[in-house]
Write a structure and sequence with these properties.
Number of domains: 4
Low-confidence stretches: 346-351, 626-635, 884-1069
Strand content: 5-15%
Strand order of the largest sheet: 6-7-8-9
Structural class: alpha+beta
Length: about 1050
């Protein structure tokens, strides 16, 4: 505090010295500046030939310098981060060592009282560790119990399923065994056996034939009578149901059994792969298989069955079937095997019984394991409760010992706490050697990048330096001595100003620092008093807390007893629930089996009803074919024995025959039935012919439909492929390294499941578009939109804030792509990002004033040309704020900008009053930046070549300056009036001309809605600030006219009228 009291006196002394230096230095600077300005014009004429090459090199240097600065900035940040990592660690360790020393001093006094407490604390971690291990073991046992329970359920389900399968197999074998016994006894000799047992096939095709050929379970018999006898036997013995295949009815298929001449892709016929001992049963196998082909997979099966002119039924090695109608079956649990043997029929009933026994044994083992786990869990539970009690007891003893230690221990405990916090803090800030090495590697890489950028920039700088050296030689000879004197005076002023500002700041802060120190002292004293009061209150509440602890311990013991009783009840309920779960599984299995059996019976009944209808229909056709004469013959002709024939009377038979002949002659024949039959037959022929025509048309339409379907597929796949390639290209272009792809969900039927959009953002893995972030989704969607536009352009797009989730880099990429690559369409983009809307050809702003929505249309290209001179004026104003002596340099710099496209030979400007200035208005007025630093002036420019002589439109007005004289410009006379020192530009779309106005200076707030008029750099000071509404400027732009109160009408009449709506300078001050 004593040092702070001496600061104001020292600051005041230094401040007076700086004020003495600054008192008369402005006049000296003004005088020196006039001398420098006098020689600047001469410097410009001598260095004009160096400006063109230098400007091109400076632009290159600017780009390389920006790259160098970026690399240097990254390197600096990395180096500072490395230093910060080490500095924080050293400071933390130093503070930790100081706190450790203080703690050791306090512990020396408390060592005798801490022994018992340390012993208890050493025991607590062991008990905690043992308790933790017990809990972990309990969790593992619980998990094993859950797994074992699930295994028991699965084993029980497998056991029940296998047992029922074996029972069904035994039932089927029993039926077949009984039938074969009847054959052996000679009661039913026409039984051949089960169809699957009569043949053999390679094991490779077992699944295919077993899945696709249910008739393998049919029983083959020689004729219908044998089948009828088998049915009667099964009904009589109550053996169940069976399907029979009559062999003599299948002889009609023998001509079709011959091997096919050719098949698609030479696929084998399943029938040809069967081996039989008796060729007589081959028609039965052909009845079951027909011309079914075999293929390796479903894709090949589809191509073979549906690809040719003739369709085939095809089955895969996995049992998947492609029907001739186009339907496909397979997958799931429909795969079957074992319906036909490989060499000799094998009885699997014994094997199945062994599997059932094995499953039962496995089930018993899992149940025993489950019981053992539950017993172990019960023991662990008791152990955990005991350990928890011991842990609580030790912690209670620790607390009692801690409470018996004198207040001196509190200080030690506090120091320990602070030491632990500091230790943790130090450990957290300790930097890993790998991190340091990684940071060093990063610094090394950045150093290389910096050096590379520096080398490239230095090469360009050397070229610029050569030109600057030549310019500097001229500058040193012409302007150097005067500029040096001016710089020395300015440096002296700047140093004095900085010193005065610094001392003033010290003077202002001295009292504030004094007040802060006093307030901090008072706060510390208040904190000390509050801490002492809190310690006293804690000592008073100690006894009350001990009584509460005893009461809570009693309640805890009671709650533990209640918890034990509840756990016993929970275990009983859990065991009962397990039994109910097992019973539920068994009932569900039985219900499923009954449902499956019912469905099979209904399917069999439906199949047999169809066969019955077919037989009745064929029976009617056979009857009509056999009775061509229309005479119904007796179906049951009686048979007589020899004794009955001997007893016949020939005379009686002749008499009966004569009576029948007479009745036949006397009976009138009714031909109406025949006529009706003929009519029906003719109608049948007509209908049959119509059916044939309709079938032909149907086939044609079906063929045309297939052709269109194929054409649609080809066109879609062609467009899909092109869009996919364009999407990949667009996404890589937008993200600079990512990847994207469009894939079909179902390659066989693209129109059923749609497409899948996969994206791999840069340096990430592949993901579906639904799993991307907002910005990544936007980029992916835009890439797809641009790919679709590439494939088939759309004339108009409307995009609503597509850049909301993108960073500035991606916004710029999307904006430039829309501007450069999509010129064959119109994009209406709603955006709030300047990186997007600044690239637009037409900008429409929406705003609200006085509760009304309004809009304004802007041409950004024209606005940019308008704003360039305004930005120059803004820089000039900033320089003026630093010192009035820059005014002439600023004026000359802006004049160089204004004549950027005029010939150097036409320029004749002087910076002092009483001289004349030249103003040029051309058809193409593009402003080029020029620099005035170090005597670098660039007045070189080339006028644009005009399209033809009639369009050439140039006006040159010379203005001669006189202090109090003003004349109107004439064709042969030069007008004179006051010379302005700054110029402001405003665009008018109707024409392009230079106008001169007195005592006005517009800056770049014109576009924002205001025009600020500022006094020029003379000694008259600042003038009033005037604001204008932007609507007035917009109306002037649209009308193509800018009013000027000081312009002569003859000057306005000579303004350039530009049909191309070129840039217009609105006002020259």
């Amino acid at each position: 505090i004593s040092e702070l009291k001496q600061v104001p006196a020292k600051a005041k002394s230094k401040l007076e010295e700086y004020h003495k230096i600054l008192s008369g230095i402005d006049d000296v600077i003004a005088q020196k500046q006039l001398e420098v300005d006098t020689h600047l014009k001469e410097l410009q004429e001598q260095t004009l030939k160096f400006q063109g090459p230098k400007k091109a090199l400076e632009e290159q240097v600017g780009k390389l310098t920006a790259k160098e600065d970026e690399a240097r900035s990254k390197l600096t940040l990395a180096q500072e981060a490395l230093q910060l990592m080490r500095r924080e660690e050293e400071m933390g360790k130093k503070k930790l060592s100081e706190m450790q020393a203080s703690l050791n001093d306090v512990k020396a006094l408390l060592e005798s009282k801490m022994n018992d407490l340390n012993n208890v604390r050493q025991a607590i971690p062991n008990v905690d560790k043992e308790l933790h291990n017990a809990k972990v073991e309990m969790a593992n046992k619980r998990r094993e119990e859950a797994e074992c329970t699930e295994n028991v359920r699965q084993c029980m389900a497998k056991f029940e399923q296998k047992r029922q399968t074996v029972e069904a197999f035994r039932s089927q074998n029993n039926l077949l065994r009984c039938l074969m016994a009847e054959k052996s006894s000679g009661n039913i000799p026409g039984i051949y056996g089960r169809l699957g047992d009569l043949g053999a096939i390679d094991e490779k095709y077992d699944v295919a034939i077993s899945t696709t050929c249910p008739p393998l379970d049919y029983i083959v018999v020689d004729n219908v009578d044998t089948a009828q006898m088998c049915v009667e036997f099964l009904r009589r013995e109550n053996l169940g149901i069976a399907s029979f295949l009559v062999l003599d009815k299948q002889e009609r298929l023998r001509p079709y059994m011959a091997k096919l001449a050719s098949t698609p892709e030479n696929a084998p016929r399943l029938f040809d792969l069967i081996r039989v001992a008796d060729p007589a049963v081959l028609p039965a196998f052909y009845f079951a298989l027909r011309d079914t082909l075999i293929a390796d997979d479903i894709t090949t099966a589809t191509r073979i069955g549906m690809g040719g002119s003739k369709r085939y039924r095809v089955v895969t090695l996995k049992g998947e079937v492609v029907e001739t109608s186009g339907s496909m079956t397979g997958g799931g649990r429909s795969e079957r095997r074992g319906r036909i043997g490989q060499k000799v029929k094998v009885d699997t009933s014994k094997q199945s019984s062994e599997e059932v026994s094995e499953l039962k044994k496995q089930l018993t083992e899992e149940q025993n394991r489950l019981n053992n786990l539950r017993n172990a869990i019960h023991q662990l539970d008791s152990r955990i409760m005991s350990l928890q009690t011991d842990c609580d007891r030790l912690k209670k003893n620790e607390q009692n010992l801690s409470n018996d230690i004198e207040p001196l221990e509190r200080k030690a405990v506090d120091l320990e706490r602070r030491l632990k916090e500091q230790t943790a803090k130090v450990e957290s800030i300790i930097v890993d050697d790998k991190d340091i090495q990684r940071k060093k590697a990063e610094v090394a890489e950045l150093t290389k990048a910096r050096d590379k950028a520096l080398e490239e920039a230095d090469e360009a700088r050397e070229k610029v330096a050569e030109i600057n050296t030549k310019i500097q030689e001229v500058y040193d000879r012409v302007v150097g001595p005067y500029q040096k004197e001016l710089d020395e005076v300015r440096a002296k002023k700047e140093n004095a100003s900085k010193g005065a500002t610094k001392e003033q700041s010290v003077l202002n802060n001295a009292q504030r620092n004094m007040n802060k120190a006093l307030n901090r002292k008072n706060d510390l004293e208040t904190d000390q008093r509050e801490t002492d009061e809190a310690i006293k209150k804690l000592e008073l509440t100690e006894d009350t807390q001990e009584a509460d602890i005893n009461r809570l311990n009693k309640e805890k013991i009671q709650n533990e007893k209640v918890m034990k009783e509840a756990e016993v009840k929970v275990k009983e309920a859990f065991n009962k629930n397990s039994e109910l779960d097992a019973e539920e599984v068994e009932l569900k299995k039985r219900c499923a089996n009954l449902t499956r059996s019912l469905l099979e019976q209904l399917k069999s009944l439906e199949h047999k009803q169809g066969k019955l209808n077919m037989i009745e229909s064929k029976n009617g056709e056979i009857t009509v074919e056999a009775d061509k004469d229309g005479i119904v013959r007796y179906k049951n002709v009686p048979e007589y024995s020899e004794e009955e024939i001997k007893n016949f009377n020939v005379q009686d038979i002749k008499f009966a025959l004569a009576n029948l002949e007479k009745r036949k002659v006397d009976k009138v024949l009714n031909t109406n039935g025949l006529v009706e039959y003929v009519t029906k037959l003719e109608r049948y022929d007509r209908e049959l012919e119509a059916l044939s025509d309709i079938s032909t048309k149907r086939d044609k339409h079906r063929q045309f439909y297939e052709q269109l379907k194929k054409q649609r597929m080809n066109e879609f796949m062609d467009g899909f492929t092109r869009i996919g390639l364009a999407l990949k290209e667009m996404y890589q272009m937008i993200t600079l390294g990512g990847d994207a792809s469009l894939d079909l969900v179902d390659s066989l039927d693209p129109f059923s499941e749609g497409v899948s959009f996969g994206v791999r953002p840069p340096k990430k893995s592949w993901k579906q578009i639904t799993n991307l972030s907002g910005g990544e989704k936007t980029l992916s969607s835009l890439a797809l939109v641009f790919a679709l536009h590439h494939y088939r352009p759309t004339p108009l797009y409307v995009m609503d804030e597509i850049d909301a989730a993108l960073d500035f880099r991606n916004v710029s990429i999307i904006g430039h792509y829309i501007k450069d690559r999509t010129k064959n369409a119109q994009f209406v983009v709603i955006s709030l990002r300047n990186n997007m809307f600044e690239l637009a050809d037409r900008l429409i702003g929406i705003y609200k004033t006085f509760d009304c929505t309004k809009s304004v249309a802007i041409d950004p290209g024209n606005i940019r040309n308008i704003m360039k001179p305004l930005h120059i004026l803004e820089e000039m104003k900033k320089r003026k704020e630093e010192g009035e002596n820059h005014a002439i340099d600023d004026k000359y710099e802006f004049q160089q900008e204004m004549v950027g496209n005029t010939n150097a030979s036409e320029i004749n400007m002087r910076s002092t009053q009483g001289s004349k200035g030249l103003l040029v208005a051309t058809e193409d007025l593009s402003v080029n930046r020029a620099s005035c630093r170090g005597g670098d002036y660039n007045a070189m420019a080339e006028k644009r070549k005009h399209r033809n002589k009639s369009e050439k439109n140039i006006r040159i007005l010379n203005f001669r300056v006189s202090a109090n004289e003003k004349k109107s410009p004439q064709k042969s006379e030069i007008p004179t009036w006051d010379v302005p020192q700054t110029i402001t530009v405003r665009r008018s779309p109707a024409s392009s001309q230079f106008l001169n106005e007195k005592n006005d200076d517009d800056d770049d707030d014109d576009v924002a809605g205001k025009v600020t008029k500022e006094a020029r750099g003379d000694s008259s000071g600042m003038k009033n600030v005037v604001s204008k509404d932007v609507s007035g400027i917009v109306s002037q732009l649209e009308a193509g006219v800018v009013q000027s109160s000081t312009l002569n009408q003859s000057v306005a009449a000579n303004a350039v009228s530009d049909t191309d709506r070129l840039e217009r300078f609105a006002r020259m001050l």
